[in-house]
Design brief:
By secondary structure, this protein is of the alpha/beta class. The chain folds into two domains: 11-30 and 325-423, Aspartate Aminotransferase, domain 1 (Alpha-Beta Complex); 59-320, Aspartate Aminotransferase, domain 2 (3-Layer(aba) Sandwich), CATH 3.40.640.10. 35% of the residues lie in helices and 13% in strands. The strands form four sheets. Strands 4-10-9-8-7-5-6 form a seven-stranded mixed sheet, sandwiched between helices. Helix 2 (55-69) packs antiparallel against helix 10. The radius of gyration is 23 Å and the shape is globular.
Length: 424
């Protein structure tokens, strides 16, 4: 078989790339939606990942336990009371953390509130929070609500960093704003990947700048985890949270993940909102109203795990353990690079779009955000009519996300061919 050493704008290249893909068999592990009895081209994993075929088996297993054992399933040989421990190794591998620094619990916005309750502690002159201009609404609402509850006026103390005209936020600009804020800054909270532009931020440099002025640094990694490998422990990130229904393929609205660096997690006096599931496991069921937190992030848990939804999460994590995030990333760089190549080398399409997502591979995951100067909605509707599932963002952006777990190079070529039909 001829090995592809560089991209070409022809159907044979896509076919060869698929044949040479070492991860190609994993597509068969997912349910691909159909329209008119034909599989769609699903490029929307940045909004909701596809269902692994083993998900129903994992859920059915827990339903059977419930049916057969009832409450006793909490304490049998595979006890529900320790269910949240099951995914820790897989999660820690995905985000570059120690096992006691990560846990799956609640949902994303709930976890952001819990983290803000701990890490936003305005004192004296140190009251300000830095976010990006145009932050995802849930992040903005969570942050401003904590400021207001603490009597801090966001109009005076919320610093919003504006991107350039292409939606790009340079690391230099972010760090400059942090260093300029000096000892007035309490917290930097930014996305790992900006949802609109698809830009992956430099977490390490931003964290270093925050620590230099005595502030905490936390990140919403909703578009990062399962997409790009990160090193949260090594890079000294203070905290992070993410959902599991995008690249982690755990189902709509499913459980969120949390990271808290052991520097804070092992501090029993660190401020937090508390619940009985964060209580020392050896005394939890003695029902004493004295809180002795579990060391690590588990000390932030409020309640026992939702077993049914957690089973779906574990199903997806099992696949990630089989292939590894670094192998997925290798394919993702190639797959997204191929999409970029075809778009930039199509004479009909190129004049009508601006790719907002950075060209630098280290500054993006598998999403490309295409800004349309005109006919964007027409292009979106044409793609949808022809069985392509994508994401539209007002006023004129299509987010295209070829996911390495289940998307193919030939699908990328087909999408570009369909887009070409709009402009020829």
């Amino acid at each position: 078989m001829k090995k592809v050493t560089h991209f070409q704008n022809d159907s044979l290249t896509a076919k060869l790339l698929d044949q040479q893909d070492p991860l190609k068999e994993f597509r068969e592990q997912f349910h691909i939606p159909k329209r008119n009895n034909k599989e769609v081209i699903y490029f929307c994993g940045n909004s909701l990942g596809l269902q692994p075929k083993i998900t129903s088996e994992k859920i059915d297993f827990e339903l059977k336990k419930w049916a057969e054992k009832g409450v006793d399933a909490h304490f049998d040989d595979d006890p529900w009371i320790y269910h949240h421990h099951k995914g820790k190794k897989a999660i820690s591998n995905l985000v570059g953390a120690k096992i006691h620094e990560v846990v799956a619990m609640n949902n994303l916005t709930t976890n952001l509130h819990l983290l803000l309750a701990s890490f936003y502690q305005p004192k004296g002159n140190r009251k300000k929070i830095i976010i990006e201009k145009g932050a995802f609404p849930s992040d903005y609402f969570a942050i401003t609500s904590h400021m207001k509850q603490k009597g801090i006026n966001p109009n005076d103390h919320l610093i919003e960093i504006s991107p350039d005209e292409n939606g790009y936020l340079s690391t230099e600009k972010i760090c400059h704003v942090i260093l300029t804020a000096k000892d007035t800054l309490a917290l930097v909270m930014l996305p790992g990947i900006q949802y609109y532009s698809g830009q992956f931020l430099d977490l390490k440099s931003i964290t270093n700048a925050a620590h230099k002025v005595g502030a905490y640094a936390g990140f919403d990694l909703a578009h990062v985890v399962g997409n790009i490998p990160v090193k949260l422990h090594e890079d000294q990130i203070d905290f992070a949270a993410w959902c599991s229904y995008k690249y982690l393929n755990s189902g709509p609205g499913n459980v969120s993940g949390v990271f808290i660096h052991e520097t804070h997690g092992n501090n029993s006096n660190f401020p937090r909102l508390t619940g009985w599931w964060g209580q020392n496991e050896t005394i939890r069921f003695k029902m004493k109203n004295y809180f002795d937190p579990i060391p690590g992030v588990d000390g932030w848990m409020l309640s026992n795990a939702n077993i049914i939804s957690s089973a779906a999460h574990l199903a997806s994590l099992e696949l990630f353990e089989k292939v590894g995030i670094h192998e997925l990333r290798k394919k993702s760089v190639l797959l997204t690079g191929y999409l970029e190549y075809l778009l930039k080398n199509n004479v009909a399409i190129k004049p009508h779009i601006n790719i907002l997502t950075p060209e630098n591979k280290s500054e993006r995951g598998c999403q490309l955000s295409l800004y349309f100067y005109n006919q964007g909605r027409r292009a979106f509707d044409h793609l949808a009519k022809n069985g392509v599932v994508l994401d539209w963002r007002e006023p004129n952006v299509i987010r295209v996300a070829p996911v390495p777990f289940y998307n193919t190079f030939q699908e990328v070529g087909r999408v570009v061919d369909l887009l070409n039909q709009v402009f020829v």
